[in-house]
Amino acid sequence: MQVDGRDNSRYKTFTRRAIMLGSAQAGAFALLAGRMYYLQIMKTDEYRMLAEENRINVRLLAPLRGRIVDRYGTVLASNRQNYRAVLIAEQTPDIQETLDKLSRIVSITPYDRKKIMRDIARSPRFMPVTVSEDLTWEQFAQVNINEPDLPGVQPDVGETRHYPFAGELAHVVGYVGPVADKDMAGEDGDNPLLKLPGFRIGKSGIEKTYDAPLRGTAGASHVEVNAYGRVIRELSKDPGKPGSEIVLTLDMDIQKFACERLKDESASAVVMDIHNGDIISFVSTPGFDPNDFNMGLSQDQWNALVNNPYKPLTNKAIAGLYPPGSTFKTVTAIAALEAGIDPNRTVTCTGKYAFGDHYFHCWKKDGHGSVGMHDGIKHSCDIYFYDTARRIGIDAIEKVARQFGLGETYNLEIPGEKAGVVPSRDWKRAVTGVSWQQGETLITGIGQGYLLTTPLQLAVLASRIANGGYAVKPRLTRAIGGDLLPVPEAPKMDINPEWIKIVQSGMNGVSNEAGGTAFRSRIPDVGFELAGKTGSAQVRRITMAERDSGVRKNETLEWRLRDHALFICFAPVAEPKYAMSLVIEHGGSGSGAAAPAARDIMLEVEKRNLARPQAYVPGSRGTEEG
Amino acid sequence: MFDLRRFTGHEMKISDKLMEFNWGFLLLLGVISSIGFAMLYSVADGSFSPWAMKQIVRFGIGSAIMIGVALIDLRVWMRVAYPLYAVALVLVAAVDIVGFKGMGAQRWLNLGIIQIQPSEIMKITILLALARYFHGLALDEVSRLRNLIVPALLIVVPVGLVVKQPDLGTAILLTVAGGVIFFAAGLAWRYFIIAGLAVLGAIPVIWERLHDYQRNRVFTFLDPERDPLGAGYHILQSKIALGSGGLFGKGFMAGTQAHLNFLPEKQTDFIFTMLGEELGFVGGIVLLSLYFAALMFSLNVAIQCRNQFGRLLALGVSVTLFFYVFINTAMVMGLLPVVGVPLPLVSYGGTAMLSLMFAFGLLMSCYIHRNLEIGRGGSNFW
Asked: What is the ipTM of this complex?
């Protein structure tokens, strides 16, 4: 036998050690199984989540911005298709050459080119990069036709904000613009929507105030991506919620008419419903084109806007501060009646009024003779109101001015409202450190001096006179997202309605009685008559020397030295419904410039009100255009 | 019943050997390989090209090789053990001189028609040479120091050459498999204790000599989150793929990690991860069980064998299979650093498949000739 004892012993050793090795292997396999149990059973939820995070990419979808419409449903701001050309880098053999070819169709400046190359460098090569935006239909068609010659270039349609009425509404609707760093700083700063390329947010006007409801809720597209970020397929898509529609109180037809009527002036006008405060028209001329802001303004365009003496960027209806001039005599009259002055008391106007060692002048050099309250308003006699103001004092005037809404802001839906000044003893001491002079009471009585008002405030004043003493507040929004907003309360003011009637009658005299300062600008159509009050706010000091040689006519003065022309009115006289204020900067006189314009606009308001009484029911046309 | 004598001598006919061939074991290998085919079909998004079909063909060739190797008399293998080892050593050395680089390492030798990886051949021939050497030593001779010089050199020389390529995985595999042959041959425990201490002492020296990418693999293994997008990416993504597979997996061809390319090298080293992702814990355990069955079979062959050469050779093949499976799966599970070791029969790769089937052929030869008794001085078979 070859198998001897020694071989037997090494066989035993071998078997023993082989079994030891086998056991060790079994142990190792148990370790592997345990590890698999740990990873695949115990930790599976965690790893499944990580795998999903790997695989699924969430892409935000910008919601369609809500429309802004007027009270009759006319679209004031909507989304327009924006024709673009995009470039996918990986599909282009030579990017520069492709851009050269494309630049024969659309203009690509060296600056654009630099930006495009930067965008391409920053994003994965399969991501489309915008090359050119806002193509005309012809350009877009050419890009389409030439696609084979432009490898990697694809025509694409996006959405941009569009304002069909441009300058006529810029101050109300405002505009949207690219997200700036400061927009990211606010509480909204974490919103991933803001980081979406090309996303626009409201920068001014209604667009800014109602940015949140207009913006809507972002949708999301869940896509499966591979390890390199390339989209394999779309898993699910939540289109998000389009922004809410905002229905304004404006009537676009009136707005257009008013803008047209005032287009050559630096002017503003506010037309209000005297009962619910709806602003029917809200004009500040000249305007500007908000569409330019959306796409980004050039330096020249910006300079032209800023340096224009007519200040197109200022919303004069809320931020223009003017002495109310004679329109304020309505306030002085009510204050006098409240103070117990008999409306039939007369003052003799000789053209000037001695006070202390000083003369106060009437606008009519030869005087009005004996004047009561009605005629005082009708002829806008300064002497009557100097005397009246002197008798009742500044405190009484200030109180009524505030009751009628001067010196106040109304939280209007657009930013930039100014409060103006209603002077008082305390105010003067605080601001100038000097105590109130009685002479200042006199000039306050005719709406000059420290008084500063906005056209919006004057419209509120006219409304509160017209509605017989209800503290109506202006508003610009009727409905948000299909829900009508409640009409703000207009509490009865603590003023005797009889006094208001006397002032209304005086204003009727202004417009409808021969000799009234606005008689020439009356509405002759029966049932449409308006009642108004003219005002000419002096912006320069008239010296004694000039008075002696004759006060210079406005027409002979430089534009910036001419008086502001103001007019407040309401209509129809018999049953008032609308009130209005109109200010033409340096327009000369209220009766000559402001009253005719106001008459034209008010007549249009009344006629259109009859022709089209049915207001737009929000939501009835959906939020999409079409 | 068989006449026992027929199996003790050299009078076994081919038909007897074919009868003795354990076809069940080949079937087991076929099942394991088929899991590989399925995974390769899945990697290609449901296509036999470019991987699955080639792999099937290779398994076919491999099976033929295995049968052919198994039918050759074990004494022949014993006789050619040293010459084969010498040829393999020359080839490994040749790689250092004329080999070309693939996958960042110099491992391949271009022989004009085919490219071969000599280190694969070395893995087999080192087993043959060591088994041949220890076959000739009685138990009390094994632990004599002078008798250990030759087998130590048999291991150290190729390991040194392989490390230079650099191919750390193969070097470790050669060392460990060789060490196991020493162990099974009955080397006294004290040597293993001394060797263990020597290895501990050598770690700083080895560390100094490691390439940066090898060091990074170790660092990354110790803390995969250190660099989740860089070197740690493979381990992290592999664990995510396995873990997200859960109990039953995401379904065949539905592994997101694999199909969306989050998983690296999924047709080769990380194929087990893909299996775990698509077929889950259950699929992974099934494959591991099949491997374990193959291991137990080969261990049993070793124990049953009545000649020391066959015992040691069978055990060597068994241990090699074990280390392949363990290192690969432990690596993809994050238990070991990333070492380029394929999963036997399942990973795509020609040389590995063919050399492994060759090794299984040797194992089967041991099985067929298990009752053959061979004297320590060798056989007079010729």
From this structure: 0.91
